[in-house]
Known about the structure:
Structural class: mainly alpha
Number of domains: 1
Oligomer: single chain
Low-confidence stretches: none
Amino acid sequence: MSVLVSDRKESKFEAITYSIELHDMLIDLMQRSFGVKDLDHFVRVRYAYGKDETEDFAKYRYLMSNFKTRIDQLASQMTNNIRAANSTYPTSMSEYEQRRSYQNNAIINCEQIIKELQRVVEIFEVDINTYGRYVKAIDREIGLIKKWRQRDNKIKSYLQGNV
């Protein structure tokens, strides 16, 4: 017997699988240079309108490369933290706290990715509306991790009862 999609519950592993999807989405965005169609044209326009004193192509190539590297590292850290939290099944309060720490670090990584995307929008003057789907995806990941932490509160109360 099959279950309708609308009646299905979220998997306990949804935070893990979605973190991988999110990382893939961010890689796709980075491959498209965050929506900057032509970096050289962007630099020339900034110079032409007097926003920059020189046509510094190297500066903006460096910034683009640096943002790509940082966002990819943060997305990798987020996925690694989620996997580390999942690999720890708490049987003591110290293990519970360690798992919680990994979950918190994953949320912090999500917030850091959002901050980096905001900087990309500010520096490269990209249309902020194109980033809505990425911010929603990151917010969904944060929500999934928070639900996971709430489910873990049952484990915490059980562990505290055994102490």
